[in-house]
């Protein structure tokens, strides 16, 4: 995935230099998620060749880059799909002028950031096979033969 491909999916995201920096971080998230108990990273050892799995990896990376960018833009807070920010508490609502007052956002913990990234990885990579047919999210020992899974 390069910046031009990313920009088609997320035109409101970072510029090219921001993308390059965040793509490196996104790749690390995906590598950790696809490395089993034996230390074999399926993305590195046998990158997917099946078109749908290749697309799943690319879209996962794009979604992770966008999440990381949103977290930077919101001061580290996780933005929900509806645009609201996790951790903000409504303190008052006025119907006549349609105003909403919020308390200062609560800091999002590193655990919450990691959980948001894990949800993206699960959404895109669940069921996607590597080049040897092993599920990218399989965490057991990498099989000597594909039929061993």
Describe it for me?
- The protein has 149 residues and is mainly alpha-helical.
- It has one domain (3-80, 109-142).
- It contains 5 helices and 2 strands.
- It has helices spanning 3-9, 16-33, 42-45, 51-73, 110-125; strands spanning 90-94, 99-102.
- The chain has a two-stranded antiparallel ribbon with strand order 1-2.
- The longest helix is centred in the middle third of the chain and has 23 residues, at 51-73.
- The two termini are 29 Å apart.
- The model has no long low-confidence stretch (mean pLDDT 84).
What's this model, at a glance?
The chain is mainly α. It has one domain (3-80, 109-142). It has helices at residues 3-9, 16-33, 42-45, 51-73, 110-125; strands at 90-94, 99-102.
Structural class: mainly alpha
**Proportion of beta-strand residues:** 5-15%
| Count of domains | 1
Q: What integer value in Å does the Rg equal?
A: 19 Å
* Main beta-sheet annotation: 2 strands, antiparallel
Show unreliable segments.
Answer: none
End-to-end Cα distance: 29 Å
Helix percentage: 40-55%
Major sheet: arrangement of strands: 1-2
Strand tally: 2
The helix/strand order is HHHHEEH
């Amino acid at each position: 995935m390069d910046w031009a491909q990313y920009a088609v999916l997320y035109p409101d995201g970072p510029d090219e230099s921001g993308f390059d920096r965040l793509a490196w971080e996104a790749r690390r998230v995906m590598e950790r998620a696809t490395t089993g108990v034996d230390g074999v990273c399926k993305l590195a050892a046998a990158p997917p060749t099946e078109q749908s799995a290749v697309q799943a990896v690319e879209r996962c990376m794009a979604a992770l880059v966008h999440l990381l960018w949103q977290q930077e833009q919101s001061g580290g807070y996780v933005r929900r799909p509806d645009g609201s920010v996790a951790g903000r508490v409504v303190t008052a609502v006025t119907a006549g002028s349609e105003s909403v007052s919020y308390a200062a956002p609560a800091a999002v913990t590193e655990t919450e950031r990691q959980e948001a990234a894990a949800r993206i990885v699960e959404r895109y990579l669940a069921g996607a096979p590597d080049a040897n047919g092993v599920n990218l999210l399989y965490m057991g020992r990498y099989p000597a033969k594909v039929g061993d899974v």
